[in-house]
Amino acid sequence: MARHEIDFSELLDVEALGRECDAIAAGGAARLLEVRAALLPVLKRANAEARDKARALLAEEGSGLNCAERISWVQDHLIKIIHAVVVRHIYPKAGPRMAVTAVGGYGRGTLAPGSDIDLLFLMPPRNAEDVRKAVEFLLYVLWDLGFKVGHATRSVDECITLSKQDMTIRTAILEMRLICGEAALANELQSRFEAEVVRNSGPDFIAAKLAERDLRHQKAGDTRYLVEPNVKEGKGGLRDIQTLFWIAKYHYHVRDAAQLVKLGVLSRQEWRLFQKAEDFLWAVRCQMHFLTGKAEERLSFDIQREISESLGYHNRPNLSAVERFMKHYFLVTKDVGDLTRILCAALEEEQAKPAPGLTGVITRFRKRVRKIPGSAEFVEDQGRIALSDPEVFRRDPVSIIRLFHVADLHGLEYHPDALKAVTRSLTLINDELRENAEANRLFLSILTSRLEPALTLRRMNEAGVLGRFIPEFGKIVAMMQFSMYHHYTVDEHLIRAVEALSEVDKGRCAEEHPLANKLMPHVEEREALYVAVLLHDIAKGRQEDHSIAGARVARKLCPRFGLKPKQTELVAWLIDQHLLMSMVAQTRDLHDRKTITDFAEKVQSLDRLKALLILTICDIRAVGPGVWNGWKGQLLRTLYYETELLLSGGFSEVSRKERAKAAEEALSLALSDWSQKDRKTYSRLHYQPYLLSVALEDQVRHAGFIREADKAGHALATMVRTDSFRAITEITVLAPDHPRLLSIIAGACAAAGANIADAQIYTTTDGRALDTILISREFQDDEDELRRAGTVCRMIEDVLAGKKRLPEVIATRARAKKKNKTFTVHPSVTISNTLSNKFTVIEVEGLDRTGLLADMTVVLADLSLDIHSARITTFGEKVIDTFYVTDLVGQKVTNENRQGTIVQRLKTVITEQEDELRRGMPSGIIAPDPVAVSRSQPKKSRAEA
Fold first, then answer.
1. pTM across the whole model
2. How far is Cα 852 from Cα 877, in angstroms, rounded to an integer?
3. Can you give the pLDDT at residue 940?
């Protein structure tokens, strides 16, 4: 984005506008309201036309800084014209006694289309009533025009006093700029501010601004790689650039950041990088404000595509236009981070020099250097690793990798000067260094460190080392995936996955990941597992499947890292299959034996199974906050245990009939304190699938629940239990069986705002439905959660009892929920008769929406299909629903014409094109977590009822 010389005159005819406003205000002192009303349409028109021109020029030339300066110039002249009207025609005595100045970002001469206008009105110590009224009139006109104005009215003395006490006020005055009025007042404030406030207070100001920046980063997520970043406040955003301006201006006493090149703080190349970064971020921010019509600072999914188009990005074979734009954005924020480190290094060097009168934080800048045992290249400076001399990297480029290794071994932070030297030495990382055995040994040691490997990898990545040392990693640096599921860029996701593995490795996840915590010490190929976790998504953004391409990359990189052939093959297999366990656990029926046997055939060994489980956990945890939950952990543990039995030869060979009979006897024995009649009645109430898949403890609880309902004569009853570990709340429903009961319950949960995490649905031998619905937990406190679950139960009971009609309540909720049209998911329906020995498996993929679950189950019931089990899994905006079905006589669906009808009807539901399919039926839910609907009953199914 090249900047152009700005011709401001094309935006606004200042003289003509001034004459028109003068004519309106002539003789207007006695009719203030009429003058304001008459000025308003004239100024509004001029402002709108000028901003439209600024927007058009932004689209034409692409410079964000030019656009921000144009809008600031327009704002200046509108204020000047209003001020002139006031002092000439309304309050003439106020003119010589008032200065209107811009402060904050506006004081720097840049303004975004929707930004606030920060003004400081400077007055003499004793200001007359006319001056106060003049300020009020000017402010009222600005407010009438729709501007958000932050303002203060103070004397010079007040400004000096307050700026000494308040760092925010001090920062605002630092960038004060006269717009109009009495220049002498502004000049006095600037000279006194420099002499009485700025002088000798540099260290305190710098420390305050850096602390303020760190706190802001923490609130914004403490990473620049969030896929919906805050362009103004986020890490690497415009506020960070402004912080650099403030620090440079305060410490080096410069008015223009370009002067930092002359002072030797930045190189000419770094200064150009600075300009490009600022120009790009301003272009993005201005486009966002123009597009949304407000001060929108979050670059959310719903505007990213339009912004990328406005800035001229186009699709490429491997990346869409929006992904290319966002990658550029993240690379720019990384550049801002580099520049911050370089400036901080220069500041430390400056402040380390003896200077009279420097106190406070200056002590942390004084050098206290000591040797690091076993290292001649580096020294320790106040707990930070630094270079022993400036030529270390040039003499031996391996020392670039060694710097991070030594820092990790000794738990040292990084001196900004060392990181600046790294950034300026990246060209030394060439093919020779990449193939160097010692460099690769050091890197593998960093990756598999027992300390903080993710922290070190993140520092290497931010310094540009990781992408240079592993060029394949460099290709995914700053790459984002345009979806709601992924919260971070690909490189940040991989580093967070290593972080999750390190936590498991240290035994810190006993409560959250009990199985992984137990298995990790017994993983034979620990190094291979770490490499697989770091590289599992390294081939993202390629045209071929990233798992296959990633395995090929691993076969190339692993020998370079020093891994043995056996380890290399394990890494390649793990990367090739890294999605397998997650997809099977969340989209397949884990009670179907063929699911387990098919999975076991692909895994083949217990060592692979252990490593794949841990990799899967780390991958899911690194997707983003809230993606992992206890229910997903339960699914993975179930799949692991079932597969472990098969791989170890321990899979039960006892027939299902015999095992079901033993389970029935165990239930009867557990009810030993009941009457003989009740024991017989309630232990024989269930079919094989229930007896074989429900824990005995739950069977006993269900028996008591059903007996109590029978004694009370309730045909419909509900029961609630919370489970904080799995982050779910369990609602058990006893009701007369009905072919569309699942749809009705799902709709009722949606109407109550509950997201289903699992549903186990069974039919009793006396024709009733016993459904256990697990909903995602919403409150930490059990009392609050039980109260909320009671509301859901009442909704289910009211709907089943006919007291409420779901179409109206669901329609209301669907209207209230904003439909996300940002994403497109190509609808897909596949039918397979090979995934299960007993059932036809229907897999549906499409864009998630309110009502999808219930609508699909209605369609399957209309098509006379019996749902035996299902998995409903949502990945951000995409849902993958898998149904295990038979026809009404218990056979697979093999007729091709019938399969075609199923596909057509389900695709219609996905795209919401045929409203008659609903026919007033209730809508389903949007499920953020996998839904396991285990419907197990005899051949006389609900669809036949």
1. 0.73
2. 13
3. 38
